[in-house]
Amino acid sequence: MVRISFRFWSWVILLCGFSICMELNCTIRDIQESLPCQLYFFSKASDCEEETLSIRMPVLFENITSLDWPGPPGGLNVQTLEKKYTEEGTNNKLYPGIKLSLKPPQDASAKYLKGFIVVIANRNNKGCLVFDISNVTWTVDLLDVQFEHELFPVRGNMQYDVTASSLPLPPMRFKRNDLRRSIISSRWGWDVNQQFPADWTTSLAFRVFLEDDMSWTISVSFTRPPAVFNFSTFIISLIPTDFLNIQSIRTVEFQYNFTEVKRGWYKIGVNPHDEHFSFPGLCLCYRRDRVCDTCIRTETQYFKVG
Questions:
Q1: Where is it mainly found (predicted)?
Q2: Looking at domain 3-184, does it have CATH number 2.60.40.1230?
Q3: Domain ranges of the chain
Q4: Distance CA 4, CA 22 (A)
Q5: Which of 51, 89, 133, 228 has the most CB atoms around it within 10 Å of its CB?
Q6: What is the pLDDT of residues 156-188, one digit of tens each?
Q7: CA neighbor of 41 nearest in space, from 74, 16, 72, 19
Q8: Beta strand pairing status for 146-151 and 3-6?
Q9: What CA–CA distance (Å, rounded) separates 263 from 175?
Q10: CA nearest 47: which of 72, 18, 24, 11?
Q11: What local confidence, expressed as pLDDT, does residue 32 receive?
């Protein structure tokens, strides 16, 4: 697979309120030819409004009056990541980030593709990435190109909602088939050698997609814990706002699909299962001196289904 990779650290993304714009050239990894591509990063919500972007980038955000616009991206993958951040020295702490990858539309509409906009929002702020590939002549061979970008670091233990759209956008009277994903970032600046199992929280991702006219599937995945904590079984819960009919499953896997979900508002929770939680010396979630404690449940914000 041909991959186009953008690897720079967006330190300010969604961490601060001031505006910043970065511009990078895009290069293709593993092949000799180059692809005319530029990546723009805007860290302030007002800079990501369509009206503002249409002035800055009229070719990408042109006002379409015909039926000649691209379909949605051929795929959007959003993953959490944890890695060390070193500046003026070295430490062993891990910090959260987000890895994004997306593809061109996988049909004939790709010939109209001029770029992508990816909006990343948390409860405090919103930023966006704009991919300018307006000078690319799309062929069948290029449909497997994969665009990647890492946002690192981002705030810890926070939900990020990611929306990806192909450019130019269709006229407002037509429905947009944006791709949407959501994740919870991991803890900020933690060292597994200095943490206790009872302090562990995971990073998780989820997406909602339609099964039929009356029900949806919610796909949940989360990051495995450090092996030293000895967690082997987990409880994944789908919790409605009224706390009635909570769905909880016990699993050894790091992914689960809730099916036949009805319209409503829900949140997702993930926590280790500790069947010996009240037995000193046996419990899995403990603190200093092996004092047993309740395992922490990582939860999303409430989100709407339907």
A1: membrane
A2: no
A3: 3-184, 196-305
A4: 18
A5: 133
A6: 989 999 999 999 999 887 878 899 999 999 888
A7: 19
A8: parallel
A9: 20
A10: 18
A11: 47
